[in-house]
Design brief:
The chain is built from ten helices and seven strands. The protein is α/β, with parallel strands linked by helices and about 300 residues long. The chain has a single domain, classed as NAD(P)-binding Rossmann-like Domain (Rossmann fold), CATH 3.40.50. The protein has a seven-stranded parallel β-sheet with strand order 3-2-1-4-5-6-7, with helices on both faces. Strand 5, helix 7 and strand 6 form a beta-alpha-beta unit. Helix 5 runs parallel beside helix 6 and helix 6 packs parallel to helix 7.
Amino acid sequence: MDKKPEPGPLFFLSFMLTLASLTKKPLLPMPASPIFDLFDLKDRVYLVTGATGALAGSAADYLAAQGARVVYLGRSAEKLDAALVRCRAAAPDAQVFAAVADVLDREALERARDAILAKWGRIDGLLNGAGGNMPGATITPDKSFADLDFEAFSQVIDLNLHGTVLPTLVFLPAMIAAKRGAIVNFSSAASAQALTRVVGYSAAKAAVDNFTRWLAVDAARRTGGAVRVNAVLPGFFLGDQNRRLLLNEDGTLTDRGRTIQQKTPFGRFGSKEELHGAIHYLLADASRFVTGTVLAVDGGFGAFSGV
């Protein structure tokens, strides 16, 4: 009679992993891993501006789910309350609170800073996610540059550029004092190449790129690299502001939406969750020798000439 083979190490490993999955508890202590340390955000304090928006709000939710302490900053108390409810529904133990402030209101930003420092004692990072466009700052196909609404153009510059610079002015000193911090700005696919229509938004985001590089150099030289400044460059992601520009009422692509997808090697729009990894990396210690970088998350849009 043949002797049955004895279970090998793979059998025991499979058994242990299955049992751990069923009990929801590790059966053996897991050794610390340097790779986990590099990406650990637990108890870090991050402020997210524009946190009631689609991309910045999703990023704030993600950071909270990773164990970070997250401040949601926005203009509407009602929208901020809804954002916190959404966050806590997904992550009941999330450490979050809301700060009502306009990114162009220095006094309100300073009150938010003081509240953060009083509650958590420090600020480890800033995600400058506030921004947007206005119809008057765009040139539609039936108009020319001569029809530009300069007041709307100025307002778009204010929101996107000044709305990045002013929060940085207010929150950066706390990072410098602590000799630790990371700032991540929001760039755009419109910053590095000419896109039709969005003249105001393009100009503002190009300025954000330059500001990112300038401040990265200045902060690095003043802090010995303790404070880093980078930007994430989203490609085309569907949101409330651009949905009607990219999709018809029936959900089909508009001519502009079709052109964008044809120039995107991935052949689609991005989903907001696909920004999380880049933002995580730029805030974490994994990027501690990275500054002045504009990191594209665009499905190859910026790399492709279209030919």
